[in-house]
Amino acid sequence: MKKLLLIPAALLLLIGCQPSLKVSVYQDELVLPLADESPDSLHMSIYLEYIAKGKPEAAKAINDVIIQQAFDLEDRHGTMEECAVSYRENLIDLYLNENEGKEGICTWEDHLEGFFEGRWKEYRVYVLKYESFRGGAHGITTVIPLVFSFKTGALLREEELFQEGYREPVAALLQNNLKEVFADDPLWLDMISMESVVPNGVFYPSETGVSWYFQPYEIGPYALGMVTAEATWEELKPYLK
Prior knowledge:
Layout: E1 11-18, E2 21-33, E3 41-53, H1 56-70, H2 80-99, E4 108-120, E5 123-133, E6 140-149, H3 167-181, H4 186-191, E7 203-205, E8 209-214, E9 227-232, H5 233-236
Parallel strand pairs: 3-4
Antiparallel strand pairs: 1-2, 2-3, 4-5, 5-6, 7-8, 8-9
């Protein structure tokens, strides 16, 4: 196995994220050449914020979900550092096994980022962003917001916000709002599969309303990119609990 060109040690840094919310940061980065003097390499980086100080039970529940979601685990199998190291080693093995001995463009990019971004009532919104390139015409970017109760650490589910039967009317609302957003760009509008624009559980509440996230390919071709469909609290009022 080739030696790593660069593996800075994991860094734990205590910072202030929001009032009453103190977080630590796990960071790691590496550049691994595919072979000696090879122009191809694996580029990986991790930046993940997690709770450093808060209600113990809530903090543990939040951190467990962050670890589970960030590293795509069925459940938590260790500390942040243990899971991150396992993720890195598995990625290295996968890269070498799939590309060793190959010729051509064999550079991979793998970047994982997670941070506390927004606040709504008792909830904190944590955003996971994953960027991956495995060759080909383009890479892929996924953005997932996680909405945590800072009191209990529980994830807020979309169904907890709305009355029964909300999906169809809210879908119609999102579709109409998205049509207005793209009204001046009919070419882009034609790329959207409107029947796929429905409440999908990937949402971001704020003071003004709720945004639903749709990943590349979810409602249209890659060129469309990631799309957010938004509705104000006033528009959503008839369907809220």
